[in-house]
Amino acid sequence: IEKGKIVNDLCKKVKSIVAYFKHSVSAADQLRAHTDLKLIQSVETRWNSTYNMLYRFIELSDKISLILLKCPTAPAMLIASELQTAKEFISLLQPFEEATKLVCGESYVTASKVIPIVNTLKCKLEECEPTTDSGGHMKKMLLEEFSKRFSNIEQVSLLAIATILDPRFKNINFVDKIACAHAQNKVTRIINEITMSNLKNSDASTTIVLETCLELYENYFIIS
């Protein structure tokens, strides 16, 4: 997140202010007198700590500004344009924060959610319309990095099949129709192979059940 100079410079300013409140008893006491919320310092090993830092900073920016004005040794407060940029950074990063919570908060396999989450994140990013040059630059940077990492995600067979077989998603979230068709065909082949293998050693009643299961799958994508 902080590789870009614009983002890095802004985050450094916010970090220095947060650090000041962490080390200044007087400033911390004044902030505590106005709110129970605490400023959050970012940690290099956790990307979302930068988001949390900026979010909390903007949330308390009015109170922080008043306190810094009373402290001669305090770092300079962000100016209006920088605050607007920080707000746009938060808007751009919020979908990633929500996706992180969604994946990390589950105790079961989430492979079927990868493609829907990735494509939803991309749509959310594209929908964001920053008004500042810095916000626009960050949006461009995020989309470029996103493309590098996830442009071929739908071609990962395991993830595509998991998504298709999840009744919540099926083929709805696919952008690449060819990749979707390949995954569907692969599932069909696997089911046919299993069905044919079982039919060889089955009685009449079992045969009917297997044929019914195969028919249900063939109608799987028709039923909404």
UniProtKB/TrEMBL annotation:
GO terms for molecular function: DNA binding. InterPro entries: hAT-like_transposase_RNase-H, RNaseH-like_sf. It comes from the Eukaryota. Residues 104-177 form the hAT-like transposase RNase-H fold domain. This is Zinc finger BED domain-containing protein. The lineage of its organism: Eukaryota, Metazoa, Ecdysozoa, Arthropoda, Hexapoda.
